[in-house]
Amino acid sequence: MKTILVTGSSSGYGLATARHFLDEGWNVIAAMRKPNPDVLPASHRLRILALDITSEESIAAAIKAAGPIDVLVNNAGIGVVGAFEATPMKQIRKIFETNTLGTLAMTQAVIPQMRERRQGTIINVTSTVTYVSMPLAAAYTASKTAIEGFTGSVAHELAHFGVRAKLVEPGYGPTTRFTANVDVKIEDLIPAEYGSFAAPIFEAFANPPATTNESDVAQAVWAAAHDTADQLHFPAGADAVALYNARTI
After folding, report:
1. Which residues contact 248 (CB under 8 A, 6 or more apart)?
2. Going by C-beta distance under 8 Å and a sequence separation of 6 or more, which residues neighbour residue 54?
3. In the chain, what are the domain boundaries?
C-alpha cells in the first residue's frame, strides 16, 4: 500500500487530494500548519501532521515522523491579487517563502529517501498563470513560474535514480481560499490610479467562462502520481486544459 504526503491539506485542493487518495485506499499523510482532524474522515490509513513549510525544523520533524513516502504533493501556497506597485515587499517575500522556497525545501527533504529506494514521485502544484500572463498577479505568477522551471530541471536529475517530478497546474478556482493567508486586503493593493484598469479585470474574474474545482485538481494529482511516462505538465480543470492546448498550439 502506497503512502502520499500532501502539504496544505486543511482546505481547498490539498484537502480534496488527501480525501481522494484516502478513498482510493492509499495511506495518506495530511500535513497542515494547524492540524485539524475534523476535516477528514477517521481512518487507520490517515495521519495528520503539523507542518510549516517555511521552517526547516518543522520540515525535518515532519519528514522524520512520516517515514517512507511514495508521493509528495507540494500543494501549500498563498496568493495575492493587486497592483505590483502597491504590494509590500514584506508580502512578496512571504509569498516566495511559501510558494517557492517552501516547495524547494520539501522537495530537497524527500529526495534522499526516494533516491535510495530508486522510486517515488514529487508533484508540485502551480497555476495556469504560468501559461498566460495575468494582470494584477505579478508576484504570485513569479513565485509559481519559478517552480515550473525548477520542476522541469530537477525532473532530469531525479530520472537518473528512477524518481519522477511532475507539475499539476490548476486553472481559476473562485471557491479556493486563494488569499486567505495574506496580511493585506485586496482593496489596499488597488490604488486609485489603477481603478479604471482593475475594474474590468475583476468583472471578468466574477464571470469566468470556465473554472477549476477541487476535484479537478485531485484527479490531476492522481493522474500525475500514476504516470510512468515523461509527461511533466498536468493541467487541472476545463479552463486549464483549454489554456494549455492553446499554448502548445
Report:
1. none
2. 97, 98, 101, 102
3. 3-248
What CATH number does the domain located at 3-248 have? 3.40.50.720
- Grid cell 478513498 is found at 23
Q: What are the tens digits of pLDDT across the range 26-57?
A: 999 999 999 999 999 999 999 999 999 999 99
Tell me whether residue 140 is one of the annotated catalytic residues: yes
Strands of 120-125's sheet in order across: 46-50, 27-32, 3-6, 71-74, 120-125, 163-170, 233-236
Q: Please tell me which residue in 13, 131, 140, 244 is annotated as part of the active site.
A: 140
* Interatomic CA distance for residues 14 and 73, integer angstroms: 8
Report the mean per-residue pLDDT for the chain. 93
Let me know: does 110 contact 125? Beta carbons within 8 Å.
Answer: no
Alpha-carbon gap, residue 41 to 71, rounded angstroms: 21
Distance in angstroms (rounded) separating the CA atoms of residues 88 and 175: 25
Question: Would you say how long the chain is, in residues?
Answer: 249
